[in-house]
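General statements about sequence and structure are easier to judge against a single worked case. For one protein, we set the task of working out the C-alpha cells from the amino acid sequence alone. The sequence in question and its C-alpha cells are set out directly beneath this paragraph.
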Amino acid sequence: MRKILMTHLYFGDPSEEFSLKLAETLLIGGVDILEVGIPYTDPVCDGEVFQRACKRALSNGMTPLQVLKGINRIREKGCKNPIYLTSYFAPIYKIGLKKFVTAAKSTGVTGLIIPDLLLEEQQNLRRLTDKYSLSLIQFATVYSTKKRLKEIIQASTNFIYCVSLPGVTGDRTSYSKLL
C-alpha cells in the first residue's frame, strides 16, 4: 500500500483567486489528491475552522456551480491529479442529482465525498455516479462494526474515508487509539 497525501480546501475562502493559487501551490508541493469543498451554510460535520471558511466563502458569493467552474480552471492549468469534491447533500439535491453529477464529471472531478449521506440513502446518487464513472467515497469510523465495514467495503470505490474521532473535524490534536 502506497501512502498518499490528500489535502482539503474550501473553494472561495478567502477568495476564488486565492483558492486557485493555493490549489496550484499544493499540487506543485507534491499533493497526490486534492479535495475541494463546496462551502455550505450549515456544515454540521465540520469544526470551527471549516465553519468559518464556509462562512467567508459564502459571504464572497461562492456557489456550488462556481466551485465546479473553479475546478475546471484548475484542470485547464494542467492538473492531472485526482480531484474529489466534498459537499453536504443539500446543495447537491437543490441543484438536482443528474445536473450536479454531469457538471462534476464535465469539470474533471474524480469523485464525490458527501459526509452527511448515509450508505442506505445513496441509491439514486450511486446510479448516476456509476453511470458517469465518478467515485462515491464511503465513510468508516473507528466504531464501525465488522458487518458495517463489509457493507462499506462492498460499496466503496477508490478509497474509504476513515473518520478517526467522534465529533466534528478540526476540534482535536490527537487521534483515537483504536486506529
Q: What stands out?
A: The radius of gyration is 16 Å. Residues 6-163 form a domain with the TIM Barrel fold (CATH 3.20.20.70). DSSP finds seven helices and six strands in the chain. The longest helix spans residues 16-28.
